[in-house]
Design a protein that fits this description.
homodimer; about 270 residues; TIM Barrel; 8-stranded parallel beta barrel; 11 helices; globular
Chain lengths: ~270, ~270
């Protein structure tokens, strides 16, 4: 229970104040936040709301999207990430989750796109370090490699992160994106102190038409969530475990119902 | 041109005799065959048709599907693979493509499922060797890990294949399934003489509702097909390059049109 964190994106249409109140009432210690609704609510106001409820922010999602077709776009994205670092610092979290971005339009240059991610990290890492925030590189499932995230495995995320101090750049272990990988347990061990968060949802089939919304509730799918959590623990990770599910049916259900179900399933399948 | 092979599954509804005639007329040397239509046509009859047209069979697709919920199902699948080896031998090809199968219904035991694949290979490899056929383990894209193929990367395929003599068990390098992997070029080098085939199609977005049919024509998507082909060559592979595209629009188009387009695109983007 003291490691559980519900990312607000799991109950997308539930107002922040309700998620915070429910988390407080359930005796939770953590909450995961999402940039857009927090910007809308007001970053400092959200920081106060969360702190007043006795909660800490497990992570802010998300920055990144470093791949770009020209220098102007690239600069704009770097500046946006600088703002994201500031927001994370204001919210009192040391984890800013980064999704790297897909191939630039019309490009097949995967190495080049990955180099853009590395260059973005290089520009931002010292600033993040100054603000007490770690840039947490998240590998997305390989089905998103072309259009969303050219970092497609934990090994690939670590290849990037290890070019920087561990205090500045780490990685996310998201079960949904990584579970299929025959190498994942070895890579979790390799990750060690770089692990910034363990995120959970489940793999269910068939994928929906919009495969961004294909994540299932823990226990409904194929992933050995507890085993992966134990592997993170064995690698030295002792921080929050964040539930992050994008699923239209869950979004359409009453917030409190999803909140209760997620907590119960976490205890059954992850803790 | 002397390495080009069209897998008949690319023109699924075109009769075998038409694909063979078109391949012969185009001066091709190879053709890729699919088990079900060949069984329907008659295996020995197909062998004669192909030989009379001066063609050789680049591969037979496909056996495998080793994962099972009980021993009776497992035995049945082993026997079916024995038949597939016989069919490959009759057709004169030394490559039988194997898709390993997904998680057994209701199971989350990925290691256990992969062990079933290893056990299946162990039972079949000596028999395949006797018949002059190599079992070619194909990693499918990780989005198929749960329901179709628990081998999700070239590294994972090699972990299995390397437990057996290279004359008996090899791997397929299919660009569609492997292109996203930051480790793929290192794994192709590792594969070396185990490479049984290089297969091409392209990654296009968005995925269709049935993601089994999401493959695009070479040149329409994100994959560096020539670079991957050159990597296979550098690893010592000099065999056929097989076009294998599952795409409803292409299946609905006239066979000769797809045949001509695939050959042109191969020359532009792969050869």
């Amino acid at each position: 229970m003291n490691r559980y964190s519900l990312n607000q994106a799991t109950t997308k249409y539930w107002p922040l104040e309700d998620v915070v109140a429910a988390s407080n009432k359930a005796g939770l210690y953590w909450i995961g936040l999402w940039r857009e609704p927090i910007q809308e609510y007001g970053v400092e106001r959200a920081a106060k709301l969360v702190a007043d409820a006795g909660l800490r922010v497990s992570s802010l999602c998300r920055g990144g999207f470093f791949t770009a077709t020209d220098e102007a776009e690239r600069r704009m994205k770097i500046e946006d990430n600088r703002r994201a670092i500031d927001e994370a610092a204001t919210l009192g979290t040391d984890v800013l989750v980064l999704v790297s971005g897909g191939l630039p339009a019309g490009s097949r240059d995967l190495d080049g796109a990955r180099a853009m991610v590395r260059d973005g990290l290089a520009e931002l890492a010292p600033y993040a370090g100054e603000r007490g925030v770690r840039l947490a590189v998240e590998a997305l499932h390989p089905m998103f490699c072309s259009d969303r995230c050219v970092v497609s495995s934990l090994g690939g995320a670590l290849d990037l992160a290890e070019q920087f101090p561990a205090t500045q750049v780490g990685v996310i272990v998201d079960a949904y994106h990584l579970w299929w990988d025959a190498d994942v347990y070895r890579q979790i061990e390799r990750a060690g102190e770089r692990i910034c968060s363990y995120q959970v949802s489940d793999w269910i089939v068939p994928l929906p038409v919009d495969n961004l919304l294909g994540r299932g509730m823990m226990g409904d799918g194929s992933i050995e969530l507890r085993r992966l959590r134990e592997a993170c623990d064995a690698a030295g990770y002792a921080g929050p475990v964040e539930v992050e599910i994008f699923n239209q049916d869950l979004w359409d259900a009453p917030g409190q119902e999803v909140f209760d179900l997620a907590l119960r399933r976490y205890l059954e399948h992850v803790a």
